[in-house]
Specification:
Blueprint lengths: L15 H12 L12 H14 L3 H7 E4 L2 E4 L1 H10 L3 E6 L4 E7 L8 E6 H6 L4 E3 L2 E3 L9 H4 L1 H17 L1 H4 L53 H12 L3 H12 L7 E3 L6 E3 H11 L27 H16 L4 H9 L8 H15 L1
Antiparallel strand pairs: 1-2, 3-4, 4-5, 6-7, 8-9
Length: 362
């Protein structure tokens, strides 16, 4: 997405019927991002959101992504909106370990808003680790993740979006976050590799916003997700695998499985899902009635044996479903359907494909 914003001069049809027809025609184009092809309602949503921002329909469709109900855009689009409103945005970086963004508002030229992101802050937020003075972040397959490959770009993006939220709330109209801040896998330009477009979720007054930028550490200590930390504490005190299964089942009812906690065994930031898996594995198997050992059956609790992550379990079960359904080219079919390899797919898409295959095999 270009940093330059084209103002919405050639407006989409103003009437609802005209807008609906326009969206239906545009949804037939196979050049659109995957989440809009054949989905006129998604196209209409993006167009109307773009109208609010004052950008063209094409800029809205290619630049706005709704992830987990929250609208997001690249830092380039957010910075462009700031400049379009007449404010000054400056970005400085050493190209490897820090980035600073400054905004001077047109209506308050004597004050400068400033935000800096560096490697230490990124590590504190759980986005990466620092090893030998360099960022270290790996995906579930052990390959370098975005924060390791594109560190400078990620630091700039975080600095720009944070200072924009602070200085120019009035020009963002709810477009506060980049896809990466909402958990999407992104490329070097900050555009999501995959993003599910959903209905906009409003955060009502007094309601917590779980997608906000992770707060910086206070007093040098990591700020964990409160509910997830409480579950982790209970898991550390569990004496049987059944107790951990119960805790994991509770976590599924309102606490994200990747919520960040301070692991009690390592003292470092970790995902609740991974910590529960370690707790489960460390405990002895629960004996069944009659002295026999129970089969390992913890999929529903999102805790798996032998250190499996939720994604590993989802992939294994998907491949089993494909075999049962007689699908011999699962990897190719999955990539055609979702636009990315199985190894890079989120759990939600792995489960969705499994449901499709289970239905076809029934």
């Amino acid at each position: 997405m270009s940093n330059e914003i084209v103002k919405h001069q050639a407006a989409a049809p103003a009437t609802l019927d005209g807008s609906v027809r326009f969206a239906q025609l545009l949804a037939d184009a196979d050049l659109l991002p995957r989440q809009f092809i054949g989905k006129p309602a998604n196209v209409l949503y993006a167009i109307e959101y773009g109208r609010t921002l004052g950008i063209t329909p094409v800029a809205a469709i290619t630049g706005i992504h709704v992830i987990e109900g929250k609208p997001s855009a690249s830092s380039g689009l957010i910075g462009g909106l700031v400049r379009q409103a007449g404010h000054k945005l400056r970005v400085k970086s050493d190209g490897k370990s820090w980035a600073t963004a400054q905004i001077v508002r047109a209506d308050d030229p004597d004050f400068t808003y400033e935000c800096t992101w560096d490697l230490e802050r990124a590590a504190q937020a759980g986005l990466c680790e620092i090893k030998n003075g360099k960022p270290f972040a790996r995906d579930r397959n052990g390959k370098p993740a975005t924060w390791e490959k594109y560190t400078a770009a990620m630091l700039k993006a975080r600095a720009i979006t944070e200072v924009a939220r602070d200085a120019c709330e009035d020009v963002l109209f709810g477009l506060h976050y980049t896809p990466e801040e909402l958990g999407a896998v992104v490329n070097q330009d900050g555009e999501p590799v995959v993003a599910e477009v959903q209905q906009l979720r409003r955060v009502e007054p007094g309601q917590s916003d779980q997608w906000s930028t992770p707060a910086p550490e206070q007093g040098g200590e990591f700020e964990p997700h409160a509910e997830a930390q409480a579950l982790a504490q209970r898991a550390s005190e569990a004496t049987t695998r059944d107790e951990v299964n119960v805790i994991a089942a509770e976590a599924k009812n309102g606490v994200p499985s990747d919520a960040r906690i301070k692991a009690l065994d390592t003292g470092k930031p970790d995902a609740l899902r991974d910590y529960l898996a370690r707790c489960w594995k460390a405990l002895p198997e629960t004996p069944a009635a009659g002295g026999e050992q129970q089969d390992d059956d913890v999929t529903d609790a999102e805790v798996v044996a032998e250190g499996e992550t939720e994604a590993d379990t989802a992939e294994r079960e998907l491949r089993a479903a494909a075999t049962k359904a007689g699908l011999t080219e699962l990897d190719a079919e999955f990539e055609r359907s979702f636009g990315l390899p199985i190894a890079q797919a989120p759990v939600s898409q792995l489960r969705e494909m499994q449901r499709i295959l289970t239905g076809s095999a029934a």
